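R.M. (postdoc): so does anyone remember the format we settled on? I'll just put the structure tokens first.
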């Protein structure tokens, strides 16, 4: 068994996808990071860390609606999660502040 297969067995594929997403995010490969985080939450819908990471990646792309939804999903599984609460509420404030403001 190679090292990669061993990690999948030890960590579980959801955590491997999350780790791959984090690596891609760190390299600025946001679309690939999002794809990996989405695989993680599809395998483990209650994986709050992956939902938060997905929200962070969407924020970096300035996709506020999807970021909000990802943080909100994290809060469905862990209502008191401080990361999700902080970022979701900041996005909500931003969206409310700029509602009705014309874009370029």
């Amino acid at each position: 068994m190679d090292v990669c297969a061993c990690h999948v067995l030890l960590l579980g594929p959801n955590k491997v996808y999350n780790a791959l997403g984090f690596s891609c995010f760190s390299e600025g490969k946001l679309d690939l990071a999002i794809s990996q985080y989405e695989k993680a939450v599809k395998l483990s819908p209650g994986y709050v860390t992956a939902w938060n990471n997905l929200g962070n990646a969407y924020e970096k792309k300035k996709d506020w609606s999807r970021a909000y939804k990802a943080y909100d999903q994290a809060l469905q599984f862990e209502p008191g999660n401080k990361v999700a609460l902080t970022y979701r509420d900041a996005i909500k404030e931003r969206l409310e502040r700029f509602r009705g403001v014309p874009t370029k």
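R.M.: ...and that's the designed sequence above, right after the tokens. Also worth knowing: The helical segments are 3-11, 13-26, 30-43, 48-60, 64-77, 82-98. The first helix runs from residue 3 to 11.
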